[in-house]
Specification:
With 325 residues, the chain is α/β, with parallel strands linked by helices. It contains 12 helices and 12 strands. It folds into 2 domains: 148 residues, 3-Layer(aba) Sandwich (Rossmann fold); 169 residues, Dehydroquinate synthase-like, alpha domain (Up-down Bundle). α6 runs parallel beside α10. It is globular and about 60 Å long.
């Protein structure tokens, strides 16, 4: 087992105090959080800006970070800081894993999706020809620092995206937390007041990863909804769909698709699907793909969860029970 370190900070001041410690930090930040740079990091901390869009989740961006580190004469004693959402943590973690054969890094996630999922667990990855996360490494951050302040700046669509991953985690780990989550979201509770649920989801993922760092067995359950969801993202990107879904919206549809497949194979009851569909709709999440299954098949066959010529389907049987088929 490995130790997945999470830290929870309440405000900007506590973050600034953290980064005033005597470490050599180099910050890679998303342009969307530029306003916080001077509030958190001192002027002598080098910073590199990227624009976190899917097109930049690429090996080119990883190389740009490495070139910047070379230009700054950064040695192996530095600590890279990924300050932004999931794309930022992916490309920064990837760069940290290969620059001078590996340097330390930590995550400071600013989106709900990153705080409960993408920035936890040490997976890094970039897209290749619109296929999601086809090239990447495993690189554990020194820690992942979760602070609710940043969630106040998120647009509604990004918050909704994070809700899907929040619900996914609780489908896998806790029916009680799932029900509390649905109640909180559907009642309109501001996401920054859902700190307890965010911390529980982050810890739940950390606990699973600590038992299966390299995604060989137990950790695969965290991919619930992602096989179908990634196929939707691939289709929208390759066809230049206007106003594409967020990652979380695609995963929400993928979870329902996985539940339907589970029912077809005799694993779950139809009532379980009905519960998920009803709850997701209460939370404002989509439940049905607007695209025919046939056009998604090629992307599903390329899914990185395939091994030995077979695709491992992550299928929900009920709350807190998942099968890998």
């Amino acid at each position: 087992m490995i130790n997945i370190r999470l830290e929870f900070r309440d405000d900007i001041k506590s973050l600034r105090d953290f980064f005033n410690e005597s470490e050599r930090y180099y910050v890679v930040y998303d342009s969307n959080v530029k306003q916080f740079i001077s509030e958190i990091f001192s002027n002598d901390i080098p910073c590199f800006e990227i624009k976190s869009v899917e097109e930049n989740k690429s090996i080119d961006t990883v190389m740009d970070i490495c070139r910047w580190l070379i230009s700054m004469e950064a040695d192996r004693d530095v600590i890279l800081v990924a300050f932004g959402g999931g794309i930022t943590s992916d490309v920064t973690g990837f760069a940290a894993s290969i620059y001078k054969r590996g340097v330390r890094y930590l995550n400071l996630p600013t989106t709900l999706l990153a705080q409960v999922d993408a920035a936890i667990g040490g997976k890094t990855g970039v897209n290749v020809d619109s296929f999601k996360n086809m090239v990447g490494t495993f690189k554990q951050p020194e820690s992942t620092i979760i602070c609710p302040v940043f969630l106040k700046t998120l647009p509604a669509k990004q918050i909704l995206s994070g809700f899907a991953e929040l619900l996914k985690t609780f489908i896998i780990t806790s029916e009680e937390n799932y029900n509390e989550c649905v109640k909180s979201i559907s009642s309109g509770l501001p996401v920054w007041e859902m700190t307890s649920l965010i911390c529980k989801a982050a810890q739940a993922k950390a606990d699973i990863v600590s038992k299966d760092e390299f995604d060989k067995d137990l950790r695969r359950v965290l991919n619930l909804g992602h096989t179908y969801g990634h196929a939707i993202e691939w289709y929208e990107h390759t066809n230049d769909v206007e106003n594409p879904m967020t990652h979380g919206e695609a995963v929400a549809i993928g979870i329902i698709a996985a539940a339907n497949e589970s029912f077809a194979r005799g694993y779950c009851d139809e009532s379980f699907i009905d519960t998920l569909v009803s709850d997701f709709q209460k939370c404002g999440l989509p439940v049905k793909s607007p695209y025919p299954n046939g056009v998604l098949i090629s992307a599903i066959r390329q899914d990185k969860k395939g091994m030995n010529g077979q695709l491992h389907m992550i299928l929900p049987v009920g709350f807190e029970k998942i099968v890998i088929d």
